[in-house]
Specification:
The complex is a heterodimer of chains A (225) and B (275).
Chain A: H1 2-10, H2 14-47, H3 52-67, H4 70-85, H5 91-116, H6 121-128, H7 133-163, H8 175-186, H9 193-222
Chain B: H1 2-21, H2 30-37, E1 40-45, E2 47-48, E3 52-54, E4 60-61, H3 63-76, E5 82-87, H4 92-97, E6 103-104, H5 112-115, E7 118-120, E8 125-134, E9 149-153, H6 157-165, E10 170-174, H7 177-185, E11 191-195, H8 196-205, E12 209-222, E13 225-227, H9 231-246, H10 249-262
Parallel strand pairs in B: 1-5, 1-6, 9-10, 9-11
Antiparallel strand pairs in B: 2-3, 3-4, 6-13, 7-13, 8-11, 8-12
The chains are: A mainly alpha (225), B alpha/beta (275).
């Protein structure tokens, strides 16, 4: 039985194909997570600021992304934009863009939560020291907020990695789709193909997500001073 | 905080601009465009053997793919000048409408509803219903089914056909293919009705079962589809399929891709379009 399982992975380029699928998954999810963190921090600070305009705009954006299924956004930017406005965007761009839209909104809300949870005297003490807005954020607020952010960010990151299989609907063959292709072909001869291949996918996702969670525990420990 | 606002604003503006810059409008004259690109973009399945699938080496294979290579050969003079767009059943129409592929060759059954959204060329394959049953008690005629239990998948052509035409057959309905086939193995019905193309492959992999009825119901056809209004490409495809039918290309295609799966017992004429 084990022989037949191993033969699924060793026949042809199956291992390499899973690797290529994994690369696609990782490229999309990590680019999106990175961009979301970069864009989400300033957006979150704006959400926590006094500017009514930005608070309204970002609140609207956040609520919009929250109620909109990712699949609908992917379809809209990949198919509908092309149909209505002849804007024919490449699939990888669309997927990174949509995942960044989602990540930025969630990240901004996490930052807002972390910042508003800081006691008011942190701002007042900073101003009393003569710090300008930008420096106050950079040296006083953000470093303290980051620690409170960590669990939320890790949660968001793993959720984004796990949601990438949706990209197949815009014709990108990610890890899960490659697995499905292998299962459908090998399944004609081997009834247990799906168990072995999806089991392998489970291990791959675990191998990606678990270290992230370990890293966050480590960071929480060293920042606990 | 104002500087952050400006920064964010600039970023949004930049994204919008990059949107419109990356916008590649397609020129008129679809055939010229394909020739200028030097490749034809064909939408195929990646997980539906033996029609469209990706083999162990990551190469697209199958009945539809075989045809795609021939189209590239005849249009661009090189069978390798195909760019495969891997689609799901649900994204076939969108893929064409959004101009993500030139032709769909993904086991696309012609229906009235679909024909309103895309243009179908001449058929290159046909599909009808079949009934699979145990070899020990084969069902070879619909009359044998009267008053008996027949397994179907909910909402499929088999379900609709038997409900409308043979109300005297008792139907047991399942959602998933695997469930339905398991029910047949467990003997929950005397037979199972489904697309004959699917049954041929299943029977081959499951000893003790036969496709006693291999052609039943309304004949459906499978054809290449192009974006609505893309007449130039549609006309070319129609001529091409007429030509390929004349030279019995589809029999060659059948022998190369479907025969190894169906085996010798199936009559190719129940599946392919011939002279």
């Amino acid at each position: 039985m084990l022989d037949s399982a191993i033969s699924i992975f060793t026949s042809g380029r199956n291992m390499a194909r899973l690797g290529e699928g994994l690369l696609i998954t990782m490229r999309i999810s990590l680019s999106a997570v990175g961009l979301s963190i970069i864009l989400g921090i300033p957006a979150g600070l704006l959400m926590a600021s006094k500017s009514k305009f930005w608070r309204f705009v970002l609140r609207f954006y956040l609520e919009f992304i929250r109620i909109m299924p990712i699949l609908v956004l992917l379809f809209f930017f990949y198919y509908s934009l092309s149909k209505i406005f002849q804007i024919n965007l490449p699939a990888t761009f669309v997927s990174i863009f949509v995942f960044t839209l989602w990540g930025t909104a969630e990240m901004a809300d996490l930052v807002r939560g972390a910042v508003t949870s800081l006691p008011k005297h942190q701002w007042e003490s900073g101003r009393a020291l003569g710090l300008r807005e930008a420096k106050l954020n950079m040296y006083v607020i953000v470093p303290q907020a980051v620690r409170r952010l960590l669990p939320g960010v890790i949660n968001l990151t793993t959720r984004m990695i796990k949601t990438t299989p949706f990209v197949f609907f815009i014709n990108i063959p990610d890890l899960v789709k490659v697995a499905q292709q292998i299962v459908e072909l090998a399944g004609m001869r081997n009834n247990l193909a799906s168990v072995w291949v999806y089991g392998c996918i489970f291990l791959i996702y675990f191998a990606i997500c678990y270290p992230i969670s370990l890293f966050s525990t480590y960071l929480e420990k060293i920042w606990q001073t | 905080m104002k500087s952050f606002g400006k920064f964010l604003f600039a970023l949004i503006a930049l994204t919008m601009v990059s949107f419109f810059v990356s916008n590649g409008l397609r020129a008129a004259g679809e055939l010229d465009k394909i020739k200028a690109d030097g490749k034809i973009r064909v939408a195929v399945f990646s997980d539906k053997p033996p029609f469209g699938y990706v083999d162990e080496n990551g190469v697209n294979q199958g009945y539809d793919v075989y045809l795609a290579h021939r189209l590239a050969q005849d249009l661009l003079g090189d069978p390798s000048k195909v760019e495969f767009v891997l689609v799901e059943a649900a994204s076939r129409i969108e893929t064409l409408q959004a101009d993500k592929a030139d032709v769909v060759l993904a086991n696309f059954t012609v229906t009235k509803e679909r024909a309103e959204q895309v243009d179908f060329a001449k058929p290159y394959m046909k599909v009808a219903l079949g009934v699979a049953s145990p070899q020990s008690a084969p069902i070879t005629d619909v009359s044998q089914l009267v008053g008996k239990k027949l397994i179907v998948n909910k909402g499929t052509t088999a379900d609709i056909y038997f409900t409308n035409n043979h109300p005297d057959v008792e139907l047991i309905k399942y959602d998933q293919n695997t469930e339905a086939f398991n029910a047949l193995r467990d003997g929950r019905g005397v037979g199972l009705a489904h697309d004959n193309t699917l049954l041929f492959a299943w029977v081959r992999g499951n000893e003790g079962f036969v496709t006693g009825i291999d052609f039943l119901g309304d004949l459906d056809t499978i054809a290449p589809a192009v974006k609505k209004g893309n007449t130039e490409l549609l006309n070319w495809l129609n001529e091409e399929i007429t030509k390929l039918t004349q030279e019995d290309f589809f029999r060659k295609d059948y022998e190369a891709t479907l025969l190894p799966v169906y085996g010798e017992s199936v009559d190719p004429n129940t599946v392919i379009v011939s002279k």
